[in-house]
Amino acid sequence: xxxxxxxLMVLALFAGMLPGCAPAAQPTKAPDxxxxxxxxxxxxxxxxxxxxxxxxxxNESQNEVFVTATFQGSxxxxxNKLKAGLQSKNVPAVVxxxxxxxxxxxxxxxxxxxxxxxxxxKFDISDIEKNILNYYTVDGKLQSMPFxxxxxxxxxxxxxxxxxxxxxxxxxxxWAEVAEYSRKLxxxxxxxKTVQYGNSFAFYGWFFEQWMAVSGQYYTNNENxxxxxxxxATFNNDRGVALLEWWKSMIDEGxxxxxxxxxxxxxxxxxxxxxxxTLDSTAALRDRVDAAAGKFExxxxxxxxxxxxxxxxxxxxxxxxxxxxxxxxxxxxQDAAWKFVKFxxxxxxxxxxxxxxxYYPVHAKGYNHPDDVAxxxxxxxxxxxxxxxxxxxxxxxxxxxxxxVFPEARQTVEKAIEAYMTGTTPTAKxxxxxxxxxxxxxxxxxxxxxK
Amino acid sequence: xxxxxxxRKTAGRVLLYLLLTVAAIIMIYxxxxxxxxxxxxxxxxxxxxxxxxxxxxxxxxxADALQQAPLVRFVxxxxxxxxxxxxxxxxxxxxxxxxxxxxxxxxxxxxFLVFLSxxxxxxxxxxxxxxxxxQGIQWDDTYMGLIAPFMASAFATFLIRQSFMSLPxxxxxxxxxxxxxxxxxxxxxxxxxxxxxxxxxxxxxxxQTYNQYLWPLLITNxxxxxxxxxxxxxxxxxxxxxxxxxxAGVVLVMIPTLVLFFIANRQxxxxxxxxxLKG
Amino acid sequence: MAVLTEKTVKxxxxxxxxxxxxxxxxIAQWLAALPYLAPSLIVFTVFVFYPLIRSIVLxxxxxxxxxxxANFVGIKYYQRLLESPEYLxxxxxxxxxxxxxxxxxLLVSLVLATLGNLRLKGIAAYRIAFALTLAISGATAAMLFxxxxxxxxxxxxxxxxxxxxxxxxxLIDPAWALFAVSVPRIWLQAGFATVVLLAGMQGISxxxxxxxxxxxxxxxxxxxxxxxxxxxxxLFFLLVVTTLNAFQTFTEVNILTKGGPVDATQVVVHxxxxxxxFNGQYGFASAQALILFVIMLVLTIIQFGVIEKRVHYA
Lengths: 451, 279, 314
Hints:
The complex is a heterotrimer.
Chain A: H1 2-15, E1 35-41, H2 45-61, E2 65-71, H3 75-87, E3 94-98, H4 102-108, E4 111-112, H5 114-121, H6 130-135, E5 137-138, E6 141-142, E7 145-150, E8 152-157, H7 158-163, H8 175-185, E9 187-188, E10 194-200, H9 205-214, H10 221-225, H11 238-253, H12 263-272, E11 275-281, H13 285-292, E12 298-301, H14 310-313, E13 319-326, H15 331-344, H16 347-356, H17 370-378, H18 381-391, H19 396-399, H20 406-421, H21 428-449
Chain B: H1 3-38, H2 42-45, H3 60-68, H4 71-102, H5 108-120, H6 127-136, H7 143-147, H8 154-165, H9 169-177, H10 182-193, H11 195-210, H12 214-219, H13 228-239, H14 243-277
Helix pairs in contact in B: 1-14, 3-14, 4-8, 4-11, 4-13, 8-11, 11-14, 13-14
Chain C: H1 6-58, E1 61-63, E2 69-72, H2 76-83, H3 85-116, H4 123-131, H5 138-148, H6 155-162, H7 174-202, H8 206-214, H9 219-230, H10 232-247, H11 251-256, H12 268-278, H13 282-307
Antiparallel strand pairs in C: 1-2
Helix pairs in contact in C: 1-13, 3-7, 3-10, 5-7, 7-10, 10-13, 12-13
């Protein structure tokens, strides 16, 4: 009896092994059955729903490929999951990875470059925005297919502008103007507590990168790591210091609200009407339009530059993410993934994507699509990011930094900004120097690991 | 007793009860607050000042929590992991403890030290290779991956060994003379007699594993394989500012261990402190 | 010269045979014990000893982001540790964390155990209340406190408001964050610690107290001279365990602050996690993990060497 019990215990132990064995996605290719592939993406909330809708459309539009799309959390979470998956050989056929992962994924040699598929099929990419293609081209080859691209824009509350005697059709264009407008837009109540702030900008590393780019500055040496591999960070210069000092002076003056690193918090404050201006990606546009509906008139402006003349000299970097095809999957799955990728960047899909999110169409024909044109007539705010994209010259500054440790670098910069803003680090130069030192160290460590 | 002394004694007693109650309130407060918050409706949670006393029983939060995150699945995963580790430890510790307590063999001291040394090596120092190893054999996102590293425990072995060593030697000698095999002795005599210690170990290892955070965080990625401690943070991230729902989730997750605690607390405490006193 | 007589040859052969028999006996004993020890030893080898060796090897290599070793770097990472501000910061943060939690737990549990040891009616219920946190996990404790610490909706700031004291940015202010993270930890461990101390107190024979009372000793005197010395073994045990646990803290930090703000709560284990999981520096992280091991070992030895002497064994 007791022995039976012992045996039962041991059996139960191993029975636990059965339900949880991780099944690798099985590629089925029976003659009349569609090739099943997995697609990982990192868009949450409404944007995620739009992605799922587009996936559904693809599945319904043909019989050869069936895509199962799974939400993997934030971009950071997703890339960690991908790394873990690479270790255990458990990866999807196609994955959406953010811009920061470009160098890393290329170096790991775990992907099949899009260029291979393009060349094989002589696929026409002449309609895809040059600046965007530029970002994802490494060593002369297009590594991934841009899918959701954005740049940062200034969201502002037109009603508050009117109330402060500011022209609601003229958002501030320079940093000095931002400060000046913010002063007029900050309101206090009888007890002296601030009830409305002129602005609130999250300590988001991406904003820093963009501001440096529009000031014409490289993030790293070797022309952002695009001419040759980057070996050191170079953003700790005068323009960087000027940026942080301007930013902090507004917080210290009480006209900019310190909400920390989260753009979720600044978006919330803007929607709630406690902040008159905020910075965010154009990808957040649709949500802002919906949130402001019936409450206030939404205005969108360009990312403010330090000086007016910067507008003619430099531009924003494209942000967002792209689609990558992993070479661990069998060729049949990779080909299926390519079909899916082509669908997602086609004009009609990009127009749908633009209208429902704010990410601008990667495909130039996307915004010539009638739906898109009609939408932009109704909501001219959607035009701003496109104009800003076209204003940017095509060079290695606007191509953006290309380093394998970018996710870490961005966190380091955010930390440095936070340290300076909270007074933990006394000067901006110190904060940036420290960040640059740390990132240079990481870059060099990383370069050690590339065989 | 004279009146003033009696008064002083009573006053003293009242003061003590007061101190005791204050201490108890402080210790229970975080838990109490969590429970109270979990029953508040959204309009009552998102307002200032926060409600310190239970004013309603809005159970919708619990329904929402169960809907927003697969809490039941998480609890099940944790249960499977904890039961697996518990049973494995019970078996392996009993076996090893038996060898230490009853079987003579050369180098017993050495092997004992080997066991002891595993208690000196902190888990965090071996976690990276363990992580890579489990990934390499594709045991990530599996129950085996969650259970395997913890199947043996030196602490468990010593706990049981302590208990076995308190069994009379004559019993063993008599049994073996009568032809009883070692295994049979272990299973039919030693184990039943060591039931208190085994019970303590079972509860302790179950609780420890149920409360694990870092290891499940590392090796589970798929939502359906996550355990309960990670699960509630997923609920928090999904619900962002819906604190009532988040607290409901936290309470739900705590229920199994609290129940276990109330049932087994005397057993657990006695068993653990016996070990602690002996150092 | 030994005379080779028949007798000595026989003795020699007997001796040899006995040795052989002994050896076979030893082997037989070993084989009998092996099946009982093998399962545990196998698990230990696979999950403790082998990884320890592998950690050492990994710490001398630069690895790519998915953990594959790329280039040998020798002791570069160990040298880096001596200079890396992030790492030195994490050591400082962890040291401060230990200084908050260890005395915190010991003091709180001492108070609770003393109270719980009183001979009063209904004391059992109080004891259960004090021991309650035994059943709570680090994650749930952290989540409960996260709400308590909420800037606007949390009771703590509300209570400060009632007392007309300035609000505290518990988890957002670098000056308060580490303290804020240590409180749930102290709360959590207080349950276990109180139980241990209570058991120790209950083990003290009543006669000692009777004798003291006869000599005219009051409550505090007998506490100072009887109770406290006799629970020093338990206190020492708690000191060692809580210190080791403090060094291994991860959960509360990961849930409440993720190491921030501005690395104010970046304890060593969280730094290791960030190094390998996010930055993909498996080698560097392994070096950190091994140093952690050494630190903990050294600290334990010191504690045994220096403090254990003052423990009063009855």
